[in-house]
Amino acid sequence: FNVDRGRGAPRMPDLETELSLLPRAHLNFELEVNVADLGSGFRLECTYNRDLYSADTVQRWLGHFEMLLRGAVASPEIPTAELVLLTDTDRERIVAWNATEAAVPGSCVHDLISAQAGRTPDRVALEFKNTALTYRQLQERSDRLARRLRAAGVRPGIRVGVFLERSLEMVVGLLGVLKAGGTYVPLDPAFPPERLSYMVQDSGAALLLTHAEVEGDVPTREVALLRVDEEPPGPEADLEGPAAGGDNLAYVIYTSGSTGKPKGVAITHRNLVNLLVSMAREPGLNETDSLLSVTTLSFDIAALELFLPLITGARVVVASREEALDGHLLLDRLRSSGATVMQATPATWRLLIDSGWQSVPGLRILSGGEALPRDLADELLDRASEVWNVYGPTETTVWSSVWRVEPGEGPVSIGRPIANTRFYVLDERGSQQPVGVPGEILIGGAGVAPGYWNRPELTEERFVRDPFAEGPEARMYRTGDLGRWLPDGRLECLGRLDHQVKVRGFRIELGEIESALREQPEVSGAVVLAREDRPGDRRLVAYVIASEETEAGLRAALRAR
Question: Is 128 helix (H, G, I), strand (E, B) or coil?
Fold first, then answer.
């Protein structure tokens, strides 16, 4: 950055003179700004390497600099950090990119599925291994379970733990809870017992839904059990009475917490319905589709896999746990299922490729949960008809943006907001950053959850008022992700602002693991990192100061947690 302190053109008798700046043929820098004092004003020149910067980018920067200068002249007493970069043009573009308003049914999730069952009662809704249920059968079985749950006291506001192995009963169980008006709390039987027990206790679940296969592994006997695979011993209750509405909770799902304990995210029917209806439009799903579901119920993206097909008349093929974890078995299931859509994390897609996957004609891919590297995106484009990158934290209901990936160079964008969703890129003071300038990603709109379960302080910290939207009740969620707007209205995610990491799609607070390690009596210090020594193989590594050789003991202690 250079300032030429000239005095303008020289003055000569009987001559009119002006200063003409010489064009520059060579520079020592990739980027240079020169300010020339012309006497009557200043001229700004920017010279740049066209291999690194585009003309649009440089022009935007000069616009930002102009805003800084105007702000400094108008308010010379304020700190420079408080000067505004955002131009009126940028502000108008961001408003236009966030204009995502769309009509959404006011129904609950199970109401949409019941309506679809009425339209296509004889179409296959669910498949697991060699068994299938039609929409009519799914409706009848979930209605019966809902009546049993009502008889057991389930009403709106009552939480029900769903401790079921992957099966047809798992989906029947979820729908039964929702139809009874309850809120389901997913409990994966493969999770550590201590973690499951904490989820049951923290959520205040009044009942655990299970079946014979895993009944012996339930994490606590202090809560009543109801098995989905046995006939009710007494009369069934009817489904009359208070029903769930859009503002009632559909589920409470637990994610990693920095204090050493997982935290529950509460999601309403209104949140979930907005997601499903938007995703049905784009990337799109209809009656001709089949979706292969591979995600554990305790990962929020499972809600899309199980409910989106059922509100659109499509077919859900539920992969078994063994198939979901074994690349060769999963590849066999993908080929035999006739799936046209599959959603998975980048780690699972690499698992399939490493298992010899070549292509599945007509397959549409949704990849989310962690960043989609360009090299993996290109490999997926070679194997499928469409690849969609999806992004969103659990707190804004699964996915908040989508983008159909195209061949090319550079990072894969996270796309544009889904229906009724707003994205902001803000600086530390809460001001909007201009196009191209990084800041924290905040998300507002219909997907924003009410908050964390029984964590008012954390809710107040992460769910904040949305000053850019109409209405005093508008809120937005601070994602902790670093990102920026691209000139065409897409968003790019640039990583994290904190110590949170993503491993195989799971959001992990490293502090939770460090806290669990430090609680062990032989450990006086611990640090946990996510390392990627081989591309695509990201792993957690703990470094400890211990009074004795305790690797096996520490592994066992962490596994229990």
Answer: strand
* Token code pair at residue 252: 């409470």
CA distance 435 to 242: 48
Q: Are 309 and 283 within 8 A, CB to CB?
A: no
pLDDT for 145 beyond 80: yes
Q: Which is higher by pLDDT, 25 or 92?
A: 92
pTM of the model: 0.88
CA pair distance 327, 535, nearest whole angstrom: 18
CB 87 within 8 A of CB 64: yes
In the predicted model, is pLDDT for residue 44 greater than 90? Answer: no
Q: What is the pLDDT of residue 5?
A: 80
**pLDDT over 80 at 183, yes or no:** yes
Residues sharing a CB contact under 8 Å with residue 160, sequence separation 6 or more, in sequence order: 149, 154, 177, 180, 182, 183, 184, 185, 205, 206, 207, 208, 209
Q: Is the pLDDT of residue 235 over 60?
A: no
Angstrom distances, CA of residue 387 to CA of 105, 296, 382, 400, 407: 28, 22, 10, 17, 10
How confident is the model at residue 39, as a pLDDT? 75
Nearest to 64 by CA among 72, 54, 76: 72
Q: What is the DSSP string of 40-82?
A: SSEEEEEEE-TTT--HHHHHHHHHHHHHHHHHHHH-TTS-GGG
SS3 558: helix
